[in-house]
């Protein structure tokens, strides 16, 4: 146990588990529910895991099931999860005044993706400043909108505005309204700030720090920043176009809306599958092609070392570059005039395959114990692993064992597949030899 506290790569999953356990205990208290009765263990555990993992999947209605105390607990949990246990572990190391050894630097390097240990102090300062600034600005806009346009009193407006601002910034997807944000389908003033907060934080803190130091000068950005920004723009445009095209005439989603509302909601839903989980449309009413596009967007996710989930944009585009270079017969895979090291290529492949394997295994298990359609189960498992929080509406109908499986997916998806694998590889030694080379037939 003592060794775990000295090794950040083991400390990260441990802190996540502790936060989930504390959240579960608090949510089980009688006064955490609106009825005044103790919440069942599975319900409290699932809600706590979803909040700490900033996912947003729920088995009970957040607005009506939980008391004000319960909702505050949930808000605190996804604020902690969004701030990042990796950041907390870095801060713990600095407060202890002991610095990091080589092994810890390598482990931290994986999750924070290209941030050096010497940058830890500035990263923490940046995280705190951005958190306070973005949440305050978004909350102020939402509170003012609720008071001016919806005749809400200051108290309720403040609570709903702050709740959604914090949830949006942390990409949590929890809403203090029973229908998420479906009541604001035509309100750009309410939806756009939420979209902006999600996009900014889904870029990841390494990108924010790079932009802070170098401004918007593309030529001076790091390769990681270029890939993340370019990938984000491409995925947003692809998602927007696909949703707009496929749902334009759907009578249960965009069909009855005006052109402006269709554009607004298509834009909103091109952002949310990337990791956030708010919905202004009925996801369960999406057409099959739209669900398929959501699979892709959720699985890829957002930027590294931020509040986004998924396998991450850099992972996806590194693998695309590898495939392209192989098709072209080139020795090295590259983007923007920079080649990738083989270690990065193997890491990207490992993350991608591990994620796909976990999702497939979880889906097979849930399909085996339920009679739910495969497209809905697959949507749920991808959403859980990628810590998105969107659902076709089946979460509350799943048996307890399936909910535990989703909790495991959320935990692994938030902590990071590589971090978990490294934490389990206790004291793994480098291989001191190499086997003779022989190439099998591929394809």
From TrEMBL:
<keyword id="KW-0472">Membrane</keyword>
<feature type="transmembrane region" description="Helical">
    <location>
        <begin position="12"/>
        <end position="29"/>
    </location>
</feature>
<feature type="transmembrane region" description="Helical">
    <location>
        <begin position="188"/>
        <end position="207"/>
    </location>
</feature>
<dbReference type="InterPro" id="IPR003445">
    <property type="entry name" value="Cat_transpt"/>
</dbReference>
<feature type="transmembrane region" description="Helical">
    <location>
        <begin position="402"/>
        <end position="426"/>
    </location>
</feature>
<feature type="transmembrane region" description="Helical">
    <location>
        <begin position="41"/>
        <end position="60"/>
    </location>
</feature>
<keyword id="KW-0812">Transmembrane</keyword>
<keyword id="KW-1133">Transmembrane helix</keyword>
<feature type="transmembrane region" description="Helical">
    <location>
        <begin position="123"/>
        <end position="148"/>
    </location>
</feature>
<keyword id="KW-0406">Ion transport</keyword>
<keyword id="KW-0813">Transport</keyword>
<dbReference type="Pfam" id="PF02386">
    <property type="entry name" value="TrkH"/>
</dbReference>
<feature type="transmembrane region" description="Helical">
    <location>
        <begin position="227"/>
        <end position="245"/>
    </location>
</feature>
<feature type="transmembrane region" description="Helical">
    <location>
        <begin position="348"/>
        <end position="369"/>
    </location>
</feature>
<feature type="transmembrane region" description="Helical">
    <location>
        <begin position="72"/>
        <end position="96"/>
    </location>
</feature>
<keyword id="KW-1003">Cell membrane</keyword>
<protein>
    <submittedName>
        <fullName>Potassium transporter TrkG</fullName>
    </submittedName>
</protein>
<feature type="transmembrane region" description="Helical">
    <location>
        <begin position="295"/>
        <end position="327"/>
    </location>
</feature>
């Amino acid at each position: 146990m003592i060794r775990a506290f000295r090794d950040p790569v083991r400390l990260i999953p441990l802190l996540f588990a502790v936060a989930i356990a504390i959240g579960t205990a608090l949510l089980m208290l009688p006064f955490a529910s609106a009825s005044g009765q103790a919440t069942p263990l599975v319900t409290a555990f699932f809600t706590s895991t979803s909040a700490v993992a900033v996912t947003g999947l729920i088995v009970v209605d957040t607005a009506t099931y939980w008391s004000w105390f319960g909702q505050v607990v949930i808000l605190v949990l996804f604020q902690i999860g969004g701030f990042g246990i990796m950041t907390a572990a870095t801060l713990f190391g600095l407060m202890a005044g002991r610095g990091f050894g080589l092994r810890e630097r390598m482990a931290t390097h994986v999750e924070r993706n290209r941030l050096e240990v010497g940058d830890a102090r500035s990263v923490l300062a940046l995280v705190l400043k951005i958190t306070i600034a973005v949440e305050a600005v978004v909350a102020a806009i939402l509170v003012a909108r609720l008071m001016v346009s919806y005749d809400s009193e200051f108290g309720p407006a403040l609570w709903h505005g702050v709740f959604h601002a914090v949830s949006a910034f942390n990409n949590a997807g929890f809403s203090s309204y029973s229908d998420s944000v479906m009541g604001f389908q035509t309100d750009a003033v309410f939806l756009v700030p939420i979209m902006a907060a999600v996009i900014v934080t889904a870029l990841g803190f390494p990108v924010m720090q790079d932009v802070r130091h170098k401004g918007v000068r593309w030529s001076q950005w790091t390769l990681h920043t270029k890939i993340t920004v370019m990938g984000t723009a491409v995925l947003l445009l692809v998602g927007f176009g696909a949703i707009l095209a496929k749902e334009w005439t759907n009578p249960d989603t965009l069909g009855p809306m005006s052109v402006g509302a269709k554009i607004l909601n298509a834009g909103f839903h091109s952002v949310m599958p990337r990791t956030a989980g708010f919905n202004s449309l009925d996801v369960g009413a999406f057409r099959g092609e739209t669900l398929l596009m959501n699979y892709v967007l959720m699985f890829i996710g957002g930027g590294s070392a931020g509040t986004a989930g998924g396998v991450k944009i850099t992972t996806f585009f590194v693998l695309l570059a590898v495939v392209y270079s192989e098709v072209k017969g080139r020795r090295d895979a590259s983007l923007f005039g920079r080649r990738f090291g083989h270690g990065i290529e193997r890491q990207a492949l490992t993350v991608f395959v591990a994620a796909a394997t976990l999702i497939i295994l979880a889906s097979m298990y849930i399909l085996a114990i339920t009679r739910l359609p495969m497209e809905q189960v697959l949507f749920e498992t991808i959403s859980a692993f990628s810590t998105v929080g969107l659902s076709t509406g089946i979460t509350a109908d799943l048996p307890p064992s399936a909910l535990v499986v989703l909790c495991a997916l959320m935990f692994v998806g938030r902590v990071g597949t590589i971090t978990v694998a490294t934490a389990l590889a206790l004291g793994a030694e480098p291989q001191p030899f190499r086997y003779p080379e022989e190439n099998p037939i591929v394809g």
